[in-house]
């Protein structure tokens, strides 16, 4: 802020004599000094108001940005935690499948041919079921991750659009929409 005040003061000291020199011969010198004094008071008042209100605005804006960054990091960490949990579940399913295979192989060696056929049939069912469970769990995890990512992207995009949307921008959008509505009416006439 001090930089701006210094630049303003420098501008006044450089531009004020130039402005006075440009207006010489047109007005009374006392009027020129009153104009200069008026300008200095106006510039000082604007500088004071800017110094008073601009830093809190930028501080609040910086704080909000930091909070949004922290919130996004927390959301990313939650998503990573969910992904690790799904991977752990998948790893446990594979370990369970391996244990079932070892058990069925030891039973099939000690039993008769009929039991071996029954066990193989049961193993095929278990394998298919486990593969379906693994595929379903993986698909559900991917869908949840995509949904979460999409929600996060939409909320961040919405915040950016709201932050950039000014009354002038809204007016331009409305005027453009109205112009587009008027065009078909002109063509039909």
Quickly describe the structure.
By secondary structure, this protein is mostly helical. It contains four helices and no strands.
Give structural notes:
With 189 residues, the chain is an all-alpha fold. The chain has one domain. Helix content is 94%, strand content 0%. It is built from four helices and no strands. The chain has helices at residues 2-22, 29-110, 113-164, 167-188. Helix 1 (2-22) runs antiparallel to helix 2. The two termini are 59 Å apart. The mean pLDDT is 81.
Measured by DSSP, the beta-strand proportion falls in under 5%
Based on secondary structure, the structural category is mainly alpha
Count of runs of 4 or more consecutive helical residues:
4
Distance between the termini: 59 Å
Overall mean pLDDT: 81
Tell me the radius of gyration: 37 Å
State the low-pLDDT regions, or none: none
Q: Write down the secondary-structure element order.
A: HHHH
SSE inventory with pairings:
Layout: H1 2-22, H2 29-110, H3 113-164, H4 167-188
List the defining traits of the structure above.
189 residues, mainly alpha
């Amino acid at each position: 802020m001090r930089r701006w005040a210094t630049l303003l003061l420098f501008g006044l000291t450089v531009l004020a004599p130039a402005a006075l020199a440009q207006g010489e011969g047109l007005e009374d010198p006392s009027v020129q000094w009153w104009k200069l004094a008026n300008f200095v008071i106006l510039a000082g008042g604007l500088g004071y108001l800017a110094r008073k209100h601009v830093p809190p605005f930028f501080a609040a804006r910086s704080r909000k940005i930091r909070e949004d960054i922290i919130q996004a990091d927390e959301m990313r960490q939650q998503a990573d935690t969910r992904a690790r949990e799904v991977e752990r579940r998948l790893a446990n399913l594979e370990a369970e499948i391996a244990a079932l295979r070892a058990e069925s192989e030891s039973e099939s060696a000690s039993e008769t041919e009929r039991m071996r056929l029954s066990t193989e049939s049961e193993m095929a069912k278990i394998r298919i079921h486990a593969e379906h469970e693994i595929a379903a769990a993986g698909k559900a995890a991917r869908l949840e991750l995509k949904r979460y990512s999409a929600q996060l992207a939409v909320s961040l995009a919405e915040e950016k659009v709201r932050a950039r949307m000014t009354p002038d921008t809204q007016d331009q959008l409305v005027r453009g929409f109205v112009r587009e509505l008027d065009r078909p009416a002109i063509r039909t006439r």
